[in-house]
């Protein structure tokens, strides 16, 4: 389980590096989204029969990074919509 958490944190950091542009999310939110992305990646890999949800494999890792990048983009879109620019 600790390995899964560490992998999720690494995936969140990678997703932050991959996503282009200025990012408005804090590092904690990014890392939490990396954990969520790693669960999504593990679940998809499990459904495809390449391993368990908490088992680290290449397909699960790739899907987790892609899911994390998408999650960060969605979260930034939601957070950006709430902010108003000063006039």
Automatic annotation (TrEMBL):
Compartmental location: Cell membrane
UniProt keyword terms in alphabetical order: Cell membrane, Membrane, Transmembrane, Transmembrane helix
Membrane-spanning intervals of the chain: 25-49, 56-79
Domain of life where this protein originates: Bacteria
Membrane topology: Multi-pass membrane protein
Similarity comment: Belongs to the UPF0410 family.
The protein's name in its UniProt record: GlsB/YeaQ/YmgE family stress response membrane protein
């Amino acid at each position: 389980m600790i390995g899964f958490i560490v992998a999720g944190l690494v995936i969140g950091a990678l997703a932050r590096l991959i996503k282009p542009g200025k990012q408005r999310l804090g590092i904690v939110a990014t890392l939490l989204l990396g954990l969520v992305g790693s669960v999504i990646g593990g679940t998809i890999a499990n459904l495809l029969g390449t391993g368990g949800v908490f088992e680290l494999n290449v397909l699960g890792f790739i899907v987790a990074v892609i899911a994390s990048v998408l999650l960060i983009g969605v979260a930034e879109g939601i957070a950006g919509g709430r902010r108003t620019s000063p006039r």
